[in-house]
Design a protein that fits this description.
Two copies of one chain form a homodimer. Chain A is mainly alpha-helical and 137 residues long. Chain A is built from seven helices and three strands; from the N terminus they run ααβααββααα. Chain A has a single domain, classed as Winged helix-like DNA-binding domain superfamily/Winged helix DNA-binding domain (Arc Repressor Mutant, subunit A, Orthogonal Bundle). A three-stranded antiparallel β-sheet of chain A has the order 1-3-2. Chain A is globular, with a radius of gyration of 15 Å. The first copy, chain A, binds a DNA duplex (30 and 30 nucleotides) through helix 4.
Chain lengths: 137, 137
DNA sequence: ATGTTATATGCAAATATAGGCATATAGGCA
DNA sequence: TGCCTATATGCCTATATTTGCATATAACAT
């Protein structure tokens, strides 16, 4: 846990990209792979990655690495953080937050054994991939 | 209500001065006079004033003017705002937030008929003023 | 080894923000 | 009228932040 002031933490959330990432992690009950977040938010990979670094440095999220893959989840060991994530989950409604959740839900169907097994999947490919896997949209 | 994104609103709270002002308004059940906020936070008047302007433009607070005096209070007509203020009240604990509340509590004892009747009161004068009024610290 | 993929990071330009000071505005009061 | 006080604001400078691109790192596959 770092010595970030509450204001510094809120400032980190005061950015559309980082708030969308935070909301996705707060709303999803799973640890999310970076590529899943990138696909759900349809943002450049470096933006998501930089956002995650800031969230991690602020003690808000934690990462489990599995080879080159990184799974992020909220750090709930701190009560203030838990309250923050609860708040974000409820506060961030409407667009683009709702669509982000929808896109993530679809993307998670590509998992196998609850693990991410594909990298970045441009929207075009998603349909084909899911048909190939015999998964309904 | 303005068309501020959630991220824009959180960015406004992501500043120590504005967060302290917001917390003071969230925690106090009263409308607060600008000079009371300035005295409680011991910040330059222009900083508090600028902060209040930003909070007001974001639709977070409202002001009732009474002559030259301005009384600010959270704008609770919006459910998302109400949740935000609830969150801030609980999230902002420790310093300087606790001391801010203490200082405000003392400062509010100078009110008469629940109205602010003195302007800026440098800490030195506060004691004398309260003795003169026969109020316990 | 070589290539491919997932993720992180260094750098530079454009832009935004905070902080401070002085001053404006405007109401109350002598 | 003129003075005092409460509050707001314009301007400036220093500093921080965002964004985009290119590239680094590191694991894995062939």
């Amino acid at each position: 846990m770092r010595a970030n002031s509450k204001a510094e933490i809120l400032k980190i959330l005061g950015d559309q990209t980082r708030l969308r990432v935070t909301h996705l992690l707060a709303a999803s009950k799973k640890s999310l792979c970076v590529c899943e977040i990138v696909d759900a938010l349809k943002l450049p990979q470096y933006q998501v990655s930089k956002g995650l670094v800031m969230l991690r440095r602020a003690g808000l999220v934690e990462v489990d690495r599995n080879g080159t893959w990184g799974y992020y989840h909220p750090n709930m060991t701190d009560d203030a953080n838990a309250a923050l994530f609860d708040f974000v989950k409820d506060y961030c409604v409407g667009e683009p937050f709702d669509s982000d959740i929808d896109a993530l839900t679809g993307r998670l169907k590509l998992r196998e054994g609850d693990k991410c097994v594909v990298g970045f999947v441009p929207e075009k490919k998603l349909r084909n991939l899911m048909r190939k896997k015999g998964i309904a949209a």
